[in-house]
């Protein structure tokens, strides 16, 4: 999986980083700077929680075939209720 960031949507609230500081990086202005970062399998739950925490929905997890994980998929990766 890779992280994709909609930089136009990111408003720099840094909730992703606050939720998953070992996965997400911020630039000097406080905006997400994790574009195309590979997510290891042991980081997937944390990456999903960080993406789900974004109020602008600016973060996506994308598999090797270019498929974007749905919100339900990310909730499952994060160990959250998927109903």
Tell me what you see in this structure.
The chain has 83 residues and is α+β, with helices and mostly antiparallel strands. Helices cover 25% and strands 10% of the residues. A two-stranded antiparallel ribbon has the order 1-2. Helix 2 (44-52) packs across helix 3.
**Average pLDDT for all residues:** 95
Supply Rg. 12 Å
Largest sheet: 2 strands, antiparallel
The proportion of strand residues reads 5-15%
Low-confidence stretches: none
Helix content, binned percent: 25-40%
**Shape type:** globular
Structural class: alpha+beta
Number of beta-strand segments: 2
Order of helices and strands: EHHEH
Cross-sheet strand order for the largest sheet: 1-2
Query: How widely separated are the two ends?
Result: 23 Å
Number of helices: 3
SSE arrangement:
Layout: E1 2-5, H1 15-19, H2 44-52, E2 59-62, H3 71-77
Antiparallel strand pairs: 1-2
How would you summarize what this structure contains?
The chain is α+β, with helices and mostly antiparallel strands and 83 residues long.
Labels describing this entry:
83 residues; alpha+beta; two-stranded antiparallel ribbon; 3 helices; 2 strands; 25% helix; 10% strand
């Amino acid at each position: 999986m890779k992280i994709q960031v909609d930089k136009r949507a990111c408003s720099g609230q840094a909730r992703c980083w606050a939720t998953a500081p070992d996965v997400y990086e911020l630039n000097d202005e406080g905006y997400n700077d994790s574009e195309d970062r590979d997510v290891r399998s042991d980081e997937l739950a944390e990456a999903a929680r960080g993406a789900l925490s974004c109020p602008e929905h600016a973060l996506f997890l994308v598999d090797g075939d270019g498929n974007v994980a749905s919100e339900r998929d990310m909730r499952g990766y994060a160990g959250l209720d998927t109903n």
